[in-house]
Each structure stands twice: as C-alpha cells, then as structure tokens.
Design goal:
- With 213 residues, the protein is α/β, with parallel strands linked by helices.
- The chain is built from nine helices and five strands.
- It has a single domain (8-212), classed as P-loop containing nucleotide triphosphate hydrolases (Rossmann fold, 3-Layer(aba) Sandwich), CATH 3.40.50.
- Helix 3 packs parallel to helix 5.
- The chain is globular.
- It starts with 7 loop residues before the first strand and ends with a helix.
Length: 213
C-alpha cells in the first residue's frame, strides 16, 4: 500500500479484539477518513437508503456522499447519530438485507473515490479485493481475552460476554459467507493477520504502520 497515493485500508476483526479502535487510531495517524457501521447507519437513517435510493441520489447530485460526510467528519459520535452512546459499534449484532448490503457496498466505493480511507468490517476486504492500492488486515484474539474486554467495556458477566461473542461471531461469519461467498477466517483474504493478545490498540496500530512502511 502506497501512502503517497489514495489508498483503502480495511480492518476486519473478531469482536473483543480491539480492532474497531485500532481502525480509528490508524485513520487518525494516516490522515484518512474512517468508515464504520456508525457512519453507514447515519447514512441509512438520513436517506432511508436502499440500493435504488442510492442510485437516485447519485443521479440527482454527484456530491451527495461528500456533502453528508463533511457534516459529520471525521467520525460521528454515537450521540450525533442518535445512538445510545453507552453501546459501542463493536458489540452490536447486525441483521442486513440484500438491499442494505448493496447500498453499503456503494457507500464504501464512494468513500474510496473521495480519497484515502480506513474501512472497518462490512466485508471491505471483499469489496476492495481488486483495488490497486489497498491493504487488508484481520485482527484476532484469544477467546478469554475477548471475553475480558467485552466484560470490561460493556459491564457484562462472563457468561453474557461469552454468549455475545458467540452470537456476533456467527452473525458476521454468516454475513460474509452470504454476501462475499468466503469465510472471514480464511487468512488468504488478508495481507496481514495480527493477534492482539498482549498488545494495546496503539501498539497494534503502530505494527500495521510499520508493515505499511
């Protein structure tokens, strides 16, 4: 990935691995926009998005995405989006329809056209698998450490955190298999796979930057 030219950095991760936070840190260090589920949710809420709605917007106004992003740049807070600020993006189970997937794919491609960006999840590694200047990263962690992090962040019991991790793992794997036709756990999807055990999010971001360098 050449940092001197517009790039796409995708961060796929297991829930509780800290990958979502790593993505935000990287976006800041690289001076790139950060696109995650919160931002996509804001767009869906604002425009009642479907694939058809996006095509209509694109036909009416080429800068619709840039104009909206500029309103909430560089990254919207949960409160700005009308979301519960106590609930972080990393710990949500998403149910996505075919129409929403197509809409999100169009949004991600629109972000890449606007300039360098960091994409968290949303099968970004698949959407940009043929991008000429992309880097795809997967962040994992041991289940005990993932559970500990979820307990700490969400104030859940160990059983609740374990069940949440299991549910999100299944939901995300089903999502990727349904829309991308591959397993998110296949290392061949990525340029770099990191285990976050024993590392802070800042250290992981620096490791990725070192790899890019």
């Amino acid at each position: 990935m050449n940092r001197e030219e517009p790039f796409v950095l995708t961060i796929s991760r297991e829930v509780g691995s800290g990958g979502h936070t790593v993505g935000g840190i990287l976006a800041g260090k690289l001076g790139a926009r950060y696109c995650d589920k919160q931002l996509l949710g804001a767009l869906e809420k604002q425009f009642n998005l479907s694939a058809g709605a996006i095509e209509k917007l694109k036909g009416e106004k080429q800068s619709w995405l840039a104009d909206f992003v500029s309103m909430i740049s560089p990254m919207p807070s949960a409160r700005m989006l009308g979301l519960d600020p106590r609930v972080t993006q990393e710990f949500r189970i998403d149910v996505t329809t075919n129409e929403i997937y197509k809409a999100e794919e169009e949004i991600l491609k629109g972000f890449a056209e606007m300039g360098s960006c960091v994409i968290a999840g949303r099968s970004g590694f698949h959407v940009f698998k043929d991008h000429p200047n992309a880097l795809h990263v997967f962040i994992t962690a041991s289940m005990p450490n993932r559970i500990e992090r979820i307990m700490r962040k969400q104030g859940l019991t160990r059983t609740e955190a374990a069940n949440l991790a299991k549910g999100i793992d299944e939901a995300r794997e089903n999502y990727i298999q349904r829309f991308a036709g591959v397993s998110r756990y296949d290392a061949r999807n990525y340029d770099l796979v990191l285990n976050s055990d024993g590392h802070t999010e800042e250290q992981l971001a620096d490791l990725i930057l070192s790899y890019i360098g």
